[in-house]
Amino acid sequence: MKPELFSSLKGYKKQDLVKDLFAGLMVAIIALPLSIALGIQSVPGSNHAVQFGIITAIVAGFFISFLGGSKYQIGGPTAAFVVILASYVLNPNIGLLGLAIAGIMAGIILIVMGLLRAGSVMKFFPYPITIGFTTGIGITLIIGQINDLGAFNVTGVSEAVHKFIAYFENIKNFDLATFGVGAIGLLCVILLPKINKKIPSAFVALIVCTGVTLLLNGVFGTNVATIGSKFGKIEAGFFPIDFSSIENVKFTALIVPSIVIAFLCAIESLLSATVASGMTNTKFNPNQELMGQGIANIASSLLGGLPATGAIARTAAGIENGARSPLTGVFHALFLLVFYFALMSVMQFIPLAVFSAILISVAINMSRFKLFGKLLRFGVRDCIILVVTCVLTVVFDLTYGVLGGVAVTFILNIQNFKKGLKTEIVESKRRNVVKAKGTIFFVNANKLVAVLEKASEGKDMVTLDLNKIESIDQTALEKISTLKKKMTLQGKTLDFVGANKKLANRLDKFLKVI
Predict the structure, then answer these.
(1) Beta sheet of 421-426, edge-to-edge order
(2) Nearest CA to 156 among 42, 44, 231, 306?
(3) Can you say whether residue 45 is alpha, beta or left, with left for phi > 0 and alpha for psi between -120 and 50 degrees?
(4) CA–CA separation, 263 and 261 (whole Å)
(5) What distance in Å separates the CA atoms of residue 321 and residue 402, rounded to the nearest whole number?
(6) Mean pLDDT for all residues in the chain
(7) For a tag site, which of 337, 419, 441, 494 has the least CB within 10 Å?
(8) What is the C-alpha separation between 439 and 433, in angstroms, rounded?
(9) Which of 8, 10, 33 is nearest to 313 (CA)?
């Protein structure tokens, strides 16, 4: 295995460099306000929260692109981590030092996973659980942003339900001016992409809201909270981990957090890399990607950053702005480094409410509420898994959500394990037909996709005969839908025949949803 960067530079030309530089600059502009927002929310109570977010984007962003297995992956702090990191920081048995060590341990776990080629195993992860916990995290994140958006001044509370209670108890603190600034920011980040997707809406929101806040505080005498009023003077720099008090660390309390961080990083990074592959009709090495993510998390934790992973929004932005290689991610990190040391003097004037607005927009996008609602129609079994995972994630946390979802998944699929799946390729001159028998679910969905890909070699048309298929779950439907899109990009077709009425209806609807 070797990093994708070195393979991508074969035949690399001057015009590719120019495009990577431009794409890297655009991604950095998008990433700067997002990284600050994620830092502030991930480490509540820390005076260096702003720096932590930017350091993560710089260090982890550099190593994820430099050593990863995807041509287009761009990493950094992500919204998926915010809720769990905040709960770890507030935990007296973990705290900031414990979180940094957990990040290093998670990085080691990711490297081991890559060496053991566990990247391929992650493909078996059930689709309803992925959507369930991402929607749950998104909901929890939205609830958390109400605090700064309304200036409720709630502190020390990490559970979503308790936060709602605390907001009602502190309703007297609600500040209309702060809410107005946040509303303006939210309008910017939601409406500007509808006008033009290439507009860095978060950056524009940051500038507009800062101007409005200066006007409100300076002319009308309001008290809208800013970075300066909460964190004081912000100085650029790195914060290498201090091991002098390591004897106070309770390592037993870090076992679960390190596993959770590694697991979430693996899921998010491979999902982001898969999305990038689908957008560009390319492949990536999942095991090298895990190793790159591992090294990036170790480096980030050692230098004062937070756990990080591949970011779908930043990766997609790189592709849309003409990225040609992993150098886009490297340049994005270098541009952020320049911004970090050049712009800190003006950061103190930025209102905290704008960061809440940015994260609400991110949370809405990651939650995929429309998709969640539509997936509720695809079978009782998958619906139960989806809802259980989401509810447990919101009420408790990600760990309970995923473990609960996995437990329910295995219980509800006992019969499918017994039935299994058999496939056969029937060749002809114009097209190959894949005949399948049994049940298709998350365990054998990759097997079917592999057979279909094999059948498409040298053929422009492939047919999947579902005449003897009893049932198919959401995970299999998602993988088949993804393959169909991929084959379409290649100028090939994937057709379906023989499905019973119920199965044909589910397949048709799912293809439209995804």
Answers:
(1) 421-426, 431-440, 461-472, 493-497
(2) 44
(3) left
(4) 5
(5) 35
(6) 92
(7) 419
(8) 18
(9) 33
